Amino acid sequence: MGWQLESQLKGWIEGSSLVAGTQPRPFLHGSNSSCECELEGMLPPYLSACLDHVHNLRLEFEPSREASRRAAIELLMVLAGRALGLRGLCLECRGEKPLFDAGRDVLEAVHAVCGAARELRHLDLRRLPFTLDDALVLQAARGCPELHSLFLDNSTLVGSVGPGSVLELLEACPRLRALGLHLASLSHAILEELAAPDRAPFALLALRCACPEDARASPLSNEAWAALHRRHPGLAVELELEPALPFESVTRVLQPAIPVAALRLNLSGDTVGPVRFAAHHYASTLCVLEVRAAASAELNAALKELAARCAALREVHCFCVVSHSVLDAFRAHCPRLRTYTLKLTREPHPWRPTLVA
Q1: What CA–CA distance (Å, rounded) separates 93 from 69?
Q2: Is the pTM of this model over 0.85?
Q3: Is the peptide bond before 145 cis (omega within 30 degrees of 0)?
Q4: Measured in whole angstroms, how far is the alpha carbon of residue 277 from the centre of its chain?
Q5: Over the stretch 132-154, which tens digit does the pLDDT of each residue have?
Q6: Would you give the DSSP letter of residue 50?
Q7: Cys-Cys link to 133, which of 17, 160, 203, 350 (CB 3.0-4.6 A)?
Protein backbone atom coordinates (compact mmCIF):
# COMPACT_ATOMS: atom_id res chain seq x y z
CA MET A 1 0.00 0.00 0.00
CA GLY A 2 1.32 3.48 -0.71
CA TRP A 3 -0.80 6.59 -0.48
CA GLN A 4 1.62 9.49 -0.22
CA LEU A 5 1.53 13.14 0.77
CA GLU A 6 -1.69 13.56 2.66
CA SER A 7 -1.53 17.32 2.15
CA GLN A 8 -1.80 16.87 -1.62
CA LEU A 9 -5.17 15.19 -1.20
CA LYS A 10 -6.62 18.55 -0.27
CA GLY A 11 -6.41 19.39 -3.95
CA TRP A 12 -9.16 16.87 -4.57
CA ILE A 13 -11.79 19.19 -3.15
CA GLU A 14 -12.48 20.71 -6.58
CA GLY A 15 -10.97 18.16 -8.97
CA SER A 16 -9.15 14.87 -8.66
CA SER A 17 -7.37 12.35 -10.80
CA LEU A 18 -6.61 9.01 -9.22
CA VAL A 19 -4.82 6.04 -10.72
CA ALA A 20 -5.37 2.79 -8.86
CA GLY A 21 -2.96 -0.08 -8.82
CA THR A 22 0.48 1.35 -9.67
CA GLN A 23 3.50 2.32 -7.65
CA PRO A 24 3.27 5.55 -5.64
CA ARG A 25 3.93 8.55 -7.84
CA PRO A 26 1.96 11.67 -6.83
CA PHE A 27 1.85 14.77 -9.00
CA LEU A 28 -0.11 18.00 -9.19
CA HIS A 29 -1.77 19.87 -12.05
CA GLY A 30 -2.92 23.24 -10.77
CA SER A 31 -5.74 22.60 -8.33
CA ASN A 32 -5.98 18.93 -9.33
CA SER A 33 -4.17 16.19 -7.47
CA SER A 34 -3.30 12.83 -8.97
CA CYS A 35 -2.03 10.08 -6.72
CA GLU A 36 -1.08 6.70 -8.10
CA CYS A 37 -1.26 3.89 -5.60
CA GLU A 38 -0.93 0.22 -4.85
CA LEU A 39 -3.91 -0.51 -2.64
CA GLU A 40 -4.27 -3.65 -0.57
CA GLY A 41 -6.87 -3.93 2.14
CA MET A 42 -8.78 -1.00 3.51
CA LEU A 43 -8.39 2.62 2.44
CA PRO A 44 -5.99 4.61 4.63
CA PRO A 45 -7.92 6.68 7.21
CA TYR A 46 -6.69 10.02 5.89
CA LEU A 47 -7.77 9.16 2.34
CA SER A 48 -11.13 7.92 3.59
CA ALA A 49 -11.65 11.23 5.38
CA CYS A 50 -10.77 13.20 2.27
CA LEU A 51 -13.45 11.44 0.21
CA ASP A 52 -16.07 13.51 2.01
CA HIS A 53 -14.69 16.56 0.22
CA VAL A 54 -14.19 15.16 -3.28
CA HIS A 55 -16.38 16.98 -5.81
CA ASN A 56 -14.97 15.66 -9.10
CA LEU A 57 -13.08 12.40 -9.47
CA ARG A 58 -11.35 10.80 -12.44
CA LEU A 59 -10.40 7.24 -11.53
CA GLU A 60 -8.06 5.18 -13.71
CA PHE A 61 -7.42 1.47 -13.16
CA GLU A 62 -6.32 -1.67 -14.97
CA PRO A 63 -9.09 -4.30 -14.96
CA SER A 64 -6.60 -7.08 -15.77
CA ARG A 65 -4.59 -6.39 -12.59
CA GLU A 66 -6.34 -7.69 -9.52
CA ALA A 67 -4.85 -5.12 -7.13
CA SER A 68 -5.80 -2.22 -9.39
CA ARG A 69 -9.32 -3.54 -9.96
CA ARG A 70 -9.89 -4.22 -6.26
CA ALA A 71 -8.62 -0.76 -5.35
CA ALA A 72 -10.98 0.93 -7.80
CA ILE A 73 -14.02 -1.04 -6.66
CA GLU A 74 -13.26 -0.48 -2.98
CA LEU A 75 -12.87 3.25 -3.50
CA LEU A 76 -16.13 3.47 -5.45
CA MET A 77 -18.04 1.54 -2.81
CA VAL A 78 -16.70 3.74 -0.04
CA LEU A 79 -17.51 6.79 -2.13
CA ALA A 80 -21.07 5.51 -2.65
CA GLY A 81 -21.61 5.59 1.08
CA ARG A 82 -20.52 9.23 1.32
CA ALA A 83 -21.29 10.67 -2.11
CA LEU A 84 -23.39 13.65 -1.07
CA GLY A 85 -20.89 16.17 -2.43
CA LEU A 86 -19.90 14.30 -5.59
CA ARG A 87 -20.51 16.33 -8.75
CA GLY A 88 -18.49 14.52 -11.40
CA LEU A 89 -17.19 10.98 -11.95
CA CYS A 90 -15.06 9.76 -14.86
CA LEU A 91 -13.86 6.15 -15.01
CA GLU A 92 -11.05 5.10 -17.31
CA CYS A 93 -9.63 1.62 -17.84
CA ARG A 94 -6.03 1.16 -18.86
CA GLY A 95 -4.46 -1.85 -20.53
CA GLU A 96 -6.35 -4.85 -21.83
CA LYS A 97 -9.67 -6.17 -20.58
CA PRO A 98 -9.57 -9.84 -19.58
CA LEU A 99 -11.27 -12.10 -22.12
CA PHE A 100 -15.01 -12.62 -21.47
CA ASP A 101 -14.88 -10.13 -18.61
CA ALA A 102 -18.37 -8.64 -18.14
CA GLY A 103 -17.19 -6.23 -15.46
CA ARG A 104 -20.10 -7.01 -13.13
CA ASP A 105 -18.13 -6.07 -10.02
CA VAL A 106 -17.12 -2.71 -11.49
CA LEU A 107 -20.61 -1.97 -12.79
CA GLU A 108 -22.18 -2.85 -9.44
CA ALA A 109 -19.92 -0.23 -7.85
CA VAL A 110 -21.01 2.33 -10.45
CA HIS A 111 -24.65 1.41 -9.71
CA ALA A 112 -24.03 2.05 -6.03
CA VAL A 113 -22.55 5.50 -6.70
CA CYS A 114 -25.45 6.44 -9.00
CA GLY A 115 -27.91 5.38 -6.31
CA ALA A 116 -26.30 7.62 -3.70
CA ALA A 117 -24.97 10.68 -5.54
CA ARG A 118 -28.09 12.85 -5.73
CA GLU A 119 -26.03 15.88 -6.78
CA LEU A 120 -24.03 14.11 -9.49
CA ARG A 121 -23.90 16.26 -12.61
CA HIS A 122 -21.31 14.61 -14.85
CA LEU A 123 -20.85 10.88 -15.43
CA ASP A 124 -18.37 9.71 -18.08
CA LEU A 125 -18.16 5.96 -18.78
CA ARG A 126 -16.69 6.15 -22.29
CA ARG A 127 -13.48 4.42 -21.19
CA LEU A 128 -15.17 1.48 -19.49
CA PRO A 129 -14.80 -1.54 -21.82
CA PHE A 130 -17.87 -3.32 -20.40
CA THR A 131 -21.39 -3.60 -21.81
CA LEU A 132 -23.57 -0.89 -20.26
CA ASP A 133 -27.25 -1.71 -19.92
CA ASP A 134 -30.72 -0.30 -19.23
CA ALA A 135 -30.43 -0.99 -15.50
CA LEU A 136 -27.50 1.42 -15.18
CA VAL A 137 -29.27 4.14 -17.16
CA LEU A 138 -32.45 3.75 -15.09
CA GLN A 139 -30.41 3.88 -11.89
CA ALA A 140 -28.89 7.15 -13.06
CA ALA A 141 -32.37 8.44 -13.94
CA ARG A 142 -33.73 7.60 -10.49
CA GLY A 143 -30.72 8.55 -8.43
CA CYS A 144 -29.12 11.50 -10.27
CA PRO A 145 -31.81 14.04 -11.25
CA GLU A 146 -29.23 16.86 -11.49
CA LEU A 147 -27.26 15.23 -14.31
CA HIS A 148 -25.89 17.68 -16.87
CA SER A 149 -23.86 15.19 -18.91
CA LEU A 150 -23.82 11.42 -19.34
CA PHE A 151 -21.51 9.57 -21.72
CA LEU A 152 -22.29 5.92 -22.49
CA ASP A 153 -20.65 5.76 -25.94
CA ASN A 154 -17.94 3.28 -25.02
CA SER A 155 -16.09 0.75 -27.17
CA THR A 156 -18.23 -2.29 -26.38
CA LEU A 157 -19.28 -4.45 -29.32
CA VAL A 158 -22.73 -5.08 -27.84
CA GLY A 159 -25.38 -2.37 -27.56
CA SER A 160 -27.62 -3.06 -24.56
CA VAL A 161 -29.04 0.39 -23.78
CA GLY A 162 -32.49 0.72 -25.33
CA PRO A 163 -34.16 3.97 -26.40
CA GLY A 164 -36.85 3.51 -23.74
CA SER A 165 -34.42 3.85 -20.83
CA VAL A 166 -32.76 6.86 -22.47
CA LEU A 167 -36.17 8.50 -22.85
CA GLU A 168 -36.87 7.88 -19.16
CA LEU A 169 -33.48 9.41 -18.33
CA LEU A 170 -34.30 12.57 -20.30
CA GLU A 171 -37.65 12.92 -18.56
CA ALA A 172 -36.06 12.48 -15.12
CA CYS A 173 -33.07 14.77 -15.81
CA PRO A 174 -34.40 18.00 -17.37
CA ARG A 175 -31.02 19.76 -17.05
CA LEU A 176 -29.13 17.25 -19.19
CA ARG A 177 -27.07 19.20 -21.75
CA ALA A 178 -24.65 16.57 -23.12
CA LEU A 179 -25.29 12.92 -23.96
CA GLY A 180 -23.12 10.20 -25.46
CA LEU A 181 -24.84 7.12 -26.89
CA HIS A 182 -24.53 4.27 -29.32
CA LEU A 183 -26.71 4.87 -32.34
CA ALA A 184 -29.02 1.98 -31.42
CA SER A 185 -29.95 3.83 -28.21
CA LEU A 186 -31.36 6.77 -30.16
CA SER A 187 -34.90 7.13 -31.52
CA HIS A 188 -37.32 9.66 -32.97
CA ALA A 189 -39.02 9.92 -29.57
CA ILE A 190 -35.69 10.92 -28.00
CA LEU A 191 -35.08 13.61 -30.63
CA GLU A 192 -38.61 14.91 -30.02
CA GLU A 193 -38.04 14.99 -26.26
CA LEU A 194 -34.79 16.89 -26.73
CA ALA A 195 -36.62 19.36 -28.98
CA ALA A 196 -39.46 19.93 -26.48
CA PRO A 197 -40.22 23.65 -25.90
CA ASP A 198 -39.57 23.49 -22.15
CA ARG A 199 -36.26 21.64 -22.48
CA ALA A 200 -33.09 23.34 -21.22
CA PRO A 201 -30.58 24.24 -23.96
CA PHE A 202 -28.94 21.08 -25.26
CA ALA A 203 -25.30 21.39 -26.31
CA LEU A 204 -23.73 18.05 -27.31
CA LEU A 205 -24.88 14.72 -28.70
CA ALA A 206 -22.06 12.18 -29.25
CA LEU A 207 -23.05 9.13 -31.30
CA ARG A 208 -20.91 6.05 -31.74
CA CYS A 209 -21.79 3.52 -34.44
CA ALA A 210 -19.67 0.50 -33.64
CA CYS A 211 -21.76 -2.63 -32.97
CA PRO A 212 -24.24 -4.78 -34.93
CA GLU A 213 -27.18 -3.19 -33.11
CA ASP A 214 -26.06 0.20 -34.44
CA ALA A 215 -26.00 -1.15 -37.99
CA ARG A 216 -29.60 -2.37 -37.59
CA ALA A 217 -30.88 0.81 -35.93
CA SER A 218 -33.96 2.44 -37.43
CA PRO A 219 -33.12 5.48 -39.58
CA LEU A 220 -33.78 8.93 -38.14
CA SER A 221 -35.39 11.39 -40.52
CA ASN A 222 -33.70 14.54 -41.74
CA GLU A 223 -36.81 16.46 -40.64
CA ALA A 224 -36.37 15.30 -37.02
CA TRP A 225 -32.74 16.45 -37.04
CA ALA A 226 -33.71 19.78 -38.55
CA ALA A 227 -36.35 20.33 -35.84
CA LEU A 228 -33.82 19.53 -33.13
CA HIS A 229 -31.29 21.95 -34.59
CA ARG A 230 -33.89 24.72 -34.84
CA ARG A 231 -34.78 24.19 -31.18
CA HIS A 232 -31.10 24.17 -30.13
CA PRO A 233 -29.12 26.24 -32.65
CA GLY A 234 -25.95 25.79 -30.59
CA LEU A 235 -26.13 21.98 -30.71
CA ALA A 236 -22.97 20.11 -31.74
CA VAL A 237 -23.13 16.47 -32.85
CA GLU A 238 -20.16 14.11 -32.84
CA LEU A 239 -20.36 11.07 -35.12
CA GLU A 240 -18.00 8.11 -34.88
CA LEU A 241 -18.55 5.48 -37.58
CA GLU A 242 -16.77 2.16 -37.10
CA PRO A 243 -16.24 -0.86 -39.43
CA ALA A 244 -19.39 -2.61 -38.15
CA LEU A 245 -21.45 -0.08 -40.11
CA PRO A 246 -22.09 -1.25 -43.72
CA PHE A 247 -22.39 1.24 -46.57
CA GLU A 248 -26.19 1.28 -46.62
CA SER A 249 -26.24 2.10 -42.89
CA VAL A 250 -23.75 4.93 -43.40
CA THR A 251 -26.04 6.54 -45.95
CA ARG A 252 -28.92 6.33 -43.45
CA VAL A 253 -26.91 7.86 -40.62
CA LEU A 254 -25.46 10.83 -42.50
CA GLN A 255 -28.42 13.16 -42.75
CA PRO A 256 -27.85 16.68 -44.18
CA ALA A 257 -29.52 18.52 -41.28
CA ILE A 258 -27.30 17.05 -38.54
CA PRO A 259 -25.06 19.83 -37.13
CA VAL A 260 -21.94 17.63 -37.21
CA ALA A 261 -19.03 19.22 -35.37
CA ALA A 262 -16.79 16.14 -35.24
CA LEU A 263 -16.75 13.29 -37.75
CA ARG A 264 -14.59 10.21 -37.20
CA LEU A 265 -14.59 7.73 -40.07
CA ASN A 266 -13.13 4.26 -39.58
CA LEU A 267 -15.12 2.34 -42.15
CA SER A 268 -14.46 -0.99 -43.81
CA GLY A 269 -16.06 0.21 -47.04
CA ASP A 270 -16.28 3.48 -48.95
CA THR A 271 -14.80 6.49 -47.15
CA VAL A 272 -14.62 8.87 -50.10
CA GLY A 273 -18.42 9.23 -50.27
CA PRO A 274 -18.83 10.21 -46.59
CA VAL A 275 -15.97 12.73 -46.88
CA ARG A 276 -17.63 14.36 -49.91
CA PHE A 277 -21.00 14.31 -48.12
CA ALA A 278 -19.43 16.11 -45.15
CA ALA A 279 -17.88 18.68 -47.46
CA HIS A 280 -21.27 19.53 -48.96
CA HIS A 281 -23.52 19.37 -45.89
CA TYR A 282 -21.40 20.04 -42.79
CA ALA A 283 -19.29 22.92 -44.08
CA SER A 284 -20.64 25.43 -41.57
CA THR A 285 -20.36 23.18 -38.49
CA LEU A 286 -17.48 20.74 -38.98
CA CYS A 287 -14.55 21.41 -36.62
CA VAL A 288 -12.87 17.99 -36.34
CA LEU A 289 -12.33 15.34 -39.01
CA GLU A 290 -10.63 11.98 -38.46
CA VAL A 291 -10.20 9.49 -41.29
CA ARG A 292 -8.83 5.96 -41.21
CA ALA A 293 -8.80 4.56 -44.72
CA ALA A 294 -6.58 3.30 -47.52
CA ALA A 295 -4.71 5.98 -49.43
CA SER A 296 -6.04 6.76 -52.91
CA ALA A 297 -6.24 9.55 -55.47
CA GLU A 298 -10.01 9.67 -54.94
CA LEU A 299 -9.59 10.22 -51.20
CA ASN A 300 -7.04 12.96 -51.86
CA ALA A 301 -9.51 14.74 -54.12
CA ALA A 302 -12.33 14.43 -51.57
CA LEU A 303 -10.10 15.80 -48.79
CA LYS A 304 -9.12 18.80 -50.92
CA GLU A 305 -12.78 19.52 -51.62
CA LEU A 306 -13.56 19.32 -47.91
CA ALA A 307 -10.67 21.64 -47.06
CA ALA A 308 -11.94 24.22 -49.55
CA ARG A 309 -15.47 24.16 -48.10
CA CYS A 310 -14.95 23.69 -44.33
CA ALA A 311 -13.22 26.85 -43.19
CA ALA A 312 -14.15 26.24 -39.52
CA LEU A 313 -11.97 23.13 -39.22
CA ARG A 314 -9.71 23.12 -36.17
CA GLU A 315 -8.40 19.56 -36.42
CA VAL A 316 -7.91 17.09 -39.26
CA HIS A 317 -6.29 13.70 -38.78
CA CYS A 318 -5.82 11.25 -41.66
CA PHE A 319 -4.24 7.93 -40.78
CA CYS A 320 -3.09 7.20 -44.29
CA VAL A 321 -0.52 8.85 -46.53
CA VAL A 322 -1.90 11.87 -48.41
CA SER A 323 -0.56 13.97 -51.28
CA HIS A 324 1.27 17.25 -50.74
CA SER A 325 -1.65 19.05 -52.40
CA VAL A 326 -3.94 17.83 -49.58
CA LEU A 327 -1.66 19.35 -46.97
CA ASP A 328 -1.47 22.59 -48.97
CA ALA A 329 -5.28 22.72 -49.26
CA PHE A 330 -5.88 22.49 -45.51
CA ARG A 331 -3.18 25.05 -44.78
CA ALA A 332 -4.57 27.46 -47.37
CA HIS A 333 -8.33 27.18 -46.72
CA CYS A 334 -8.63 26.46 -42.97
CA PRO A 335 -7.40 29.50 -41.02
CA ARG A 336 -8.60 28.06 -37.68
CA LEU A 337 -6.61 24.83 -38.04
CA ARG A 338 -4.72 24.12 -34.81
CA THR A 339 -3.51 20.55 -35.19
CA TYR A 340 -3.32 18.05 -38.04
CA THR A 341 -2.04 14.60 -38.95
CA LEU A 342 -1.32 14.69 -42.68
CA LYS A 343 1.66 12.45 -43.51
CA LEU A 344 3.27 12.65 -46.92
CA THR A 345 5.32 9.48 -46.40
CA ARG A 346 4.74 6.40 -44.31
CA GLU A 347 6.23 6.68 -40.83
CA PRO A 348 6.54 4.31 -37.89
CA HIS A 349 3.44 4.33 -35.73
CA PRO A 350 2.15 5.96 -33.64
CA TRP A 351 1.82 8.98 -35.91
CA ARG A 352 2.13 12.24 -34.01
CA PRO A 353 0.02 15.28 -34.94
CA THR A 354 1.54 18.57 -36.01
CA LEU A 355 0.63 21.67 -33.99
CA VAL A 356 0.03 24.87 -35.92
CA ALA A 357 2.01 27.73 -34.45
Answers
A1: 9
A2: yes
A3: no
A4: 24
A5: 999 999 999 999 999 999 999 99
A6: H
A7: 160
